UniProtKB/TrEMBL annotation:
GO terms classed as biological process: glyoxylate cycle; tricarboxylic acid cycle
Protein name (record): isocitrate dehydrogenase (NADP(+))
Family listed: Belongs to the monomeric-type IDH family.
InterPro entries, A to Z: Isocitrate_DH_NADP_mono
Keywords, in A-Z order: Glyoxylate bypass, Magnesium, Metal-binding, NADP, Oxidoreductase, Tricarboxylic acid cycle
Natural source organism: Glutamicibacter ectropisis
Presence of keyword Oxidoreductase: yes
Enzyme Commission code(s) on record: 1.1.1.42
GO MF, one annotated term: isocitrate dehydrogenase (NADP+) activity
Catalytic activity: D-threo-isocitrate + NADP(+) = 2-oxoglutarate + CO2 + NADPH
Pfam family, one: IDH
């Protein structure tokens, strides 16, 4: 993905997200956008690595919350970037 002229160094989708939430004016979104842009390859790699693998959630109707959380949030890099929103 190439970067946009409006947001040098950031992928186009991230730049569009930034424009939508006006991240250039809000430091919380700006930090997330920067983290996503800088770590895009690592995030995509982490998500691709878990695709197509069977998982054990320890139940169908009442799955184990810890196991489910780990499966649904497999990218530590993405999770770390999203944590910037809570700061």
């Amino acid at each position: 993905m190439g970067s946009s002229r409006e947001c040098p160094g950031l992928p186009r989708p991230v730049c569009r997200l930034c424009r939508y939430v006006r991240c250039r004016e809000d430091s919380a979104f700006s930090a997330v956008a920067k983290a996503l842009g800088e770590n895009e390859e690592a995030i995509v790699s982490e998500l691709a690595a878990v695709q197509g693998q069977a998982v054990d959630l320890a139940g169908y109707y009442r799955p184990d919350e810890v196991k489910t959380s780990a499966v649904m949030r497999p990218s530590a890099t993405l999770n770390k970037a999203l944590e910037l929103l809570s700061k």
